[in-house]
Write a structure and sequence with these properties.
2 strands; 72% helix; two-stranded antiparallel ribbon; mainly alpha; 453 residues
Length: 453
């Protein structure tokens, strides 16, 4: 049976500026997925890095969320977002583009990799916060779920194509030269973003407002919301143990399972099919089971599959690793589409940057801690032990969500609400008679994002 495209989808695909935003995201994401394979392989295979050094490299990539995560939002609320996106892409292009010539000249070192990781991490903080704050300027509120779903589809598609491409390039050209694809991806993204013509007004500064006061307003906004607190806690736990995985998996694949770069790329690509499926299904699932219910269900159903990571082995046993990654990615992407759309639709425009930055600080700030911890555990007890730690951690992710008002809600709030719940919370009729959770407070505004293994 042929079905006509949904009217909302047709309007979304016909939006010129959103198409440019989407295409730019595709270029940058594909390149960064190549580097996801190539950069740790440069450290492990070219520079003979220890598990701790690989963990330190992963920590350097994410340390920026702790270093500049909070003030980044306040700064971005004072400026137009599009120029920030373009500059961040150019900085990342130059940073990762420095690796191939250094390798060709024989002067590449681990300190340079740490510096590149740190610089690209800082640029990514500004890019990510600006990107999430810029989308509502491109699309009307009713199209945000569709827009976020399309962006997640692009990201998931890049996770399928990019690692396979990266593994092939590493095997063909060597790990350092493969990173050229990432530099070109960031450059293409910058050129596409520069063509966007959306009229973005410059925010009017408030006289007498200090940076510290503005940062504090964003923090109070997030922590004053019971749904945000629960989602931020679950996300922070998820990202903490996802960072353990990121720091350990390449060492595990190369030194325990003896996988080649090409097989590693294929493994990452096939597991990313789960993320693509999550992006494609998120809108349908949100309508079918409810946006609030999808947030906790996605973690309850998929998190237990993490135990397959440490159970995987050489040969056919590597399939267990890919299966676990695919299922966990499915849940993570479905979760992200639901709660990021909610956050964007409820938060006042003047607070978007600070709200997004606060959430990023809280939920991505655990990444460098997890990466360092994973490297230390892998160094002292072996990569498989670190993967067991990761699996146990993932089993804890749903707990904050199940202890929050989300457990009794079908859809996320959009207006004012009765005691204990978020504003305008729509309760499922089958659970409306359940007693309210203790210690809940009236909600005041939005919500935020989970793991992206």
């Amino acid at each position: 049976m042929n079905e006509k495209p949904h009217p909302r989808q047709a309007r979304l695909l016909g939006h010129r500026d959103f198409r440019l935003l989407l295409t730019g995201a595709a270029a940058a994401q594909t390149g960064s997925q190549v580097t996801l394979v190539a950069l740790p392989l440069v450290a492990v295979m070219v520079l003979d890095a220890t598990p701790f050094e690989v963990g330190l490299l992963t920590a350097a990539e994410t340390a920026a969320f702790l270093l500049v995560g909070l003030p980044a939002g306040a700064w971005l609320d004072r400026m137009r977002k599009l120029p920030v996106l373009i500059r961040a892409d150019l900085v990342r292009c130059l940073a990762v583009g420095s690796i191939p010539p250094a390798a060709a000249l024989g002067v590449l070192t681990m300190p340079q990799l740490y510096l590149v990781a740190l610089v690209t991490g800082v640029a990514t903080v500004f890019f990510d916060v600006a990107h999430q704050s810029f989308l509502p300027a491109v699309l009307p509120r009713e199209q945000l779920v569709g827009g976020n779903g399309a962006l997640e589809t692009v990201r998931s598609s890049a996770q399928i194509a990019g690692p396979g491409l990266g593994g092939g390039l590493v095997q063909l050209l060597g790990a350092p030269l493969a990173i050229v694809a990432d530099a070109f991806g960031y450059l293409a993204s910058a050129l596409l973003l520069a063509r966007i013509k959306v009229e973005e007004p410059r925010p009017e500064p408030e006289p007498g407002r200090s940076l510290r006061a503005e940062v504090g307003e964003g923090v109070r906004f997030v922590l004053g919301h019971p749904l945000l607190r629960a989602i931020a806690t679950a996300t922070a736990v998820s990202n903490l143990f996802a960072a353990v995985l990121m720091a350990v998996q390449t060492v595990f694949w190369v030194r325990v399972l003896d996988l080649s770069p090409g097989v590693i790329g294929i493994l990452l690509s096939t597991s990313a099919v789960g993320g693509l499926a999550g992006a494609l299904c998120a809108g349908y699932l949100a309508r079918r089971v409810g946006q609030a219910r999808l947030i906790w269900l996605s973690t309850v159903v998929t998190a237990p599959f993490a135990v397959l990571w440490p159970l995987s082995g050489a040969g056919a046993g590597v399939v267990l690793f890919g299966l676990a990654s695919g299922v966990v990615l499915f849940g993570a992407v479905a979760y992200n589409v639901a709660q990021v759309s909610f956050r964007q639709s409820v938060c006042p425009p003047e607070l978007l940057g600070r709200m997004n930055a606060t959430m990023r600080f809280l939920v991505w700030g655990t990444l460098p801690i997890g990466a360092l911890g994973g490297g230390i555990v892998a160094d002292s007890a072996g990569p498989r032990t670190a993967l067991w730690l990761c699996a146990i951690g993932f089993l804890l992710v749903p707990v904050p969500l199940l202890l929050s008002p989300l457990r009794r809600m079908r859809d996320l709030p959009s207006g004012a609400a009765p005691d204990g719940a978020a504003p305008g919370a729509e309760y499922d009729s089958s659970t409306a008679q359940e007693p309210a959770d203790e210690q809940t407070t009236p909600a005041q505004e939005p919500a935020a994002s989970p793991t992206t293994p």
